Amino acid sequence: MIDSSLKEIAAALRAKTVSAVELATESLARIEAGNPKINAFVTVDRDGALAAAKAADARLAAGHGGPLTGIPLAHKDVFCTEGVLTTCGSKMLSNFVSPYDAHVVTLLKAAGAVMVGKTNMDEFAMGSSNENSHFGPTRNPWNTDKVPGGSSGGSAAAVAARMVPIATGTDTGGSIRQPASLCGITGIKPTYGTVSRYGMIAYASSLDQGGAFGRSAEDCALMLSAMNGHDPRDSTSLERDTEDYTADLARPLAGLRIGLPTEFFADGMSDDVRAAVEAALAEYRKLGAVTVDVSLPNARLAIPAYYVIAPAEASSNLSRFDGVRYGHRAAEYGDLNDMYCKSRAQGFGAEVKRRILVGTYVLSHGYYDAYYIKAQKLRRLIAQDFAAAFAQCDVIAGPTCPTVAFGIGEKSNDPVQMYLGDIYTVAVNLAGLPALAHPAGFGAGGMPVGLQLIGNYFGEARLLGVAHQFQQNTDWHARKPAV
Amino acid sequence: MSRTDWEVVIGLEVHTQLSTQSKIFSGASIAFGAEPNVQACAVDIALPGVLPVLNKGAVERAIRFGLAVGATIAPKSVFARKNYFYPDLPKGYQISQYELPVVVGGQIHLLVPDGKGGAYEKVVNLTRAHLEEDAGKSLHEDFHGMTGIDLNRAGTPLLEIVSEPEMSSSAEAVAYAKALHGIVRWIDICDGNMQEGSFRCDANVSVRPRGQKEFGTRREIKNLNSFRFMQQAIDYEIQWQIDLIEDGGKVQQATVLFDSDTGETRAMRSKEDAHDYRYFPDPDLLPLIIDSAWIERVKGELPELPAALSARFQNDFGLSIYDATALTASREVSQFYLDTVAAAGTASAKTCANWVMGEVAARLNKAELDITASPVSALQLAGLVQRIADNTISNAIAKKVFDALWNKEGGDDANAADTIIETQGLKQVTDSGAIEAIIDEVLAANQKSVEEFRAGKEKAFNALVGQCMKASKGKANPAQVNEILKKKLG
């Protein structure tokens, strides 16, 4: 049953052809069977899931509940969950049990979704392959020798492997869209400030944004509708009413102007990805959309700007992990400084240390203006590019990643090569725009290719509607891995 | 070189704890004296995932301060992170304002004692005042080689007020700190309790040969928590720096602590140990935007400020600037004075001032009481002043009546002074016949003094007056005694 769409599951729950407890049990069984191979979950909360499912059934029996009531879901392990381990993929927090729920967790609980567990991720959401997890790499369900992408790789893999119908993710530089693309599912990162960051362990505060993974745009729309809205505990949360993102699903594509940034279609994209992207665009044109060329002249500066701003914020955000109040503390140490050094040296992995060092460097006296201030200027230029482009089009389309999923270990010794993989995704975070990735075919080795759609601010409903119309006429999103 | 060949330059940084109910970025209480760590919520202990939300009450107090000192309230200011590791700093950074503070400029008017019984006026310019959070406390005792951490204070709202380096003596620094202390209490943004750390001063001190343009190298004396220590610490530091330079040494920039037991300052860390705090705008907080409507509302809620009230005292009541300044040292003192004058009449305003600054202040000081707890109420004092004004009692008897008021001998009513004068028979004797009778008795008993006076000894006259007053138990009208006695001896 959990292979079905959320709408179908919700109907079945109300028709009593399935119960929430049965759904949870099915999900837990699939995790048990598949996780040893995929390593998508860090923690499975069987007891909590069954209790929540029981409560959901009671709610449904009373005629209450909404579209997510009784639906199994997984949370990326970056979201704090009361009473359930929250590791952030790090040894530093391998023993951390949060005394409170993240805002997103509270909202989805209230909606009646049933959390079955916490998904694996790159440590502190730093990475593009899920290889930077203290709990071992997650594997791509389409080919377990390949990476699922990152940093929300566990969530993407869990949805792709049909362990859960939906899962949460976070996207700082592409961490929802890239793994969605590499795992052949749909994932959306909304406008910055739409989803509360309260209880979402910070990597780069000005870029981090929570979002949704599902097998279809429609499922993502239902899920994101339950996740958004103003939260007074997050000062960057936008003061807007909660929005229903299913509003535009039925809207036809006729007359839709799709902007194609010339910079995204130049060199850098592999041939198989290009072929799939072009085919998807042809399909959009067939459905009545028109494509127009647009330009994002500063997009090439997005990666250097991102790899200054994100590490700068991270170096400060991660200072609280000092071994004093919670988290890993070295067993043996001399003085205070030694305790800090040893606890952090032992608790953090290589990529996290690398970014803390870079961030500390760019914020240092004498370098701040040359790096941090300059990067902030680039950030404004990039946002201006998008503003100019959206004067000519309704959505922007292009590849999500330059290639299909690469092999585990293939790039782990070359961080710069790994960073360059974020070329199409990071500009969106710097501008704070909404964007999604949806399945658009397959490339080399039968690995999925995702198309990226970028919207203007608060264009989530339109983006999801566009993808939904595509999915009504194609079946890429319905293909599932053999695993 | 002598001491007068050196010029002293002092600037002060004062941390005032704002009198909000809750912390600057969380909802936890800031009440003083709670058990360790019971007033630290998830935000204060910096759990993973928590975020700061600015307390508008803290901003409002900053606006009050800015308006009270004639500063500019920045329409946009920015919170930044000051990064450093310390166990009582849970996030590993302090949220403060760096490049864009909320309050810019402003002035403090002071009256500095000149050491010769007088005082001179001075204006000290403020550089800025900015909002920030306090750190927790590290407790190094009681833990046997370990350190205890109390995070109750972490996140307490502070307004750090920075002066220009415009003070040139410890007396000026102390006068500035006292004036600032008076203002923050006056506008009710800080309780001013120095023992509890609500008002903490750091003094930047340097010296230079008189006439030199460039500042000397400064040393910063941290955490001066009383005005007396401030004076001692700065005086010691000035002499230390002068001695060092005159001995051929060079002052190294440093942070120093004042040891109140030895009366000395000693270096805590040198410039080489200085942190690179890696300030950058806190991405968790939006820029603080203050519109003119907000400023206008706060302006409308401000009480009459001490400078304005002092001017009014000088104009309306004919007080000296010295008296007016003393009577506007706190809202409580000025209110007591205003209440006294209101009941006693404006004609007695100067007498009221003398009593409030004299007997009342002295007795309260001795009893370590606040004026709001004065056993003699403003109305009772006014009753006493009225009896002096209408000649019912002399000044000498008035002191007696005040003592009785203090001891509650006249009860709690406003007319307690009258009750005391009545029941203790202290009313001045103005009946010439009665006074003559007393004088006759005294003259008869003091023939020797009479003879001495007649022989040209002026002093003998005063002795006779004294005897008459004594015989009347102080109640005889002194002027009448003088007059009649002169006649009798003349």
Explain what you see:
Chain A: Heterotrimer of A, B and C subunits. Chain A: It is an enzyme of class 6 (ligase). Chain A: Its EC number is 6.3.5.7. Chain A: Belongs to the amidase family. GatA subfamily. The complex is a heterodimer of chains A (483) and B (490). With 483 residues, chain A is an alpha/beta fold. Chain A has one domain (1-483): Amidase signature (AS) enzymes (Alpha-Beta Complex), CATH 3.90.1300. Chain A contains 15 helices and 11 strands. Chain A has an 11-stranded mixed beta sheet, sandwiched between helices. In chain A, helix 7 (217-227) packs antiparallel against helix 15 and helix 9 (302-317) crosses helix 12. In chain B, a hairpin with a 4-residue loop joins strand 14 and strand 15 (264-270). Chain B is α+β, with helices and mostly antiparallel strands. Helix content of chain B is 39%, strand content 20%. Chain B has 3 domains: 3-294, no CATH class; 304-423, no CATH class; 432-489, Arc Repressor Mutant, subunit A. The longest helix of chain B has 20 residues, at 227-246. Chain B is elongated and about 95 Å long.
SSE map:
The complex is a heterodimer of chains A (483) and B (490).
Chain A: H1 6-14, H2 20-38, E1 41-44, H3 46-61, E2 72-76, H4 103-110, E3 114-119, H5 153-160, E4 166-170, H6 177-183, E5 186-189, E6 210-214, H7 217-227, E7 257-261, H8 271-286, E8 290-294, H9 302-317, H10 336-347, H11 350-363, H12 368-389, E9 395-399, H13 415-420, H14 426-431, E10 435-442, E11 448-455, H15 460-473
Parallel strand pairs in A: 2-3, 2-4, 7-8, 7-9
Antiparallel strand pairs in A: 1-3, 4-6, 5-6, 5-10, 9-11, 10-11
Chain B: E1 6-17, H1 56-68, E2 72-73, E3 76-77, E4 79-83, E5 93-97, E6 103-104, E7 107-113, E8 119-133, E9 137-139, E10 148-150, E11 157-163, H2 170-186, E12 199-209, E13 219-224, H3 227-246, E14 254-259, E15 264-270, E16 280-281, E17 288-289, H4 292-301, H5 306-317, H6 321-327, H7 331-344, H8 349-367, H9 378-389, H10 395-406, H11 416-423, H12 432-445, H13 447-454, H14 458-471, H15 478-489
Parallel strand pairs in B: 13-14
Antiparallel strand pairs in B: 1-11, 1-12, 2-6, 3-17, 4-5, 4-16, 6-8, 7-8, 8-11, 9-10, 12-13, 14-15
Helix pairs in contact in B: 2-3, 5-6, 7-8, 7-9, 9-10, 10-11, 12-14, 12-15, 13-14, 14-15
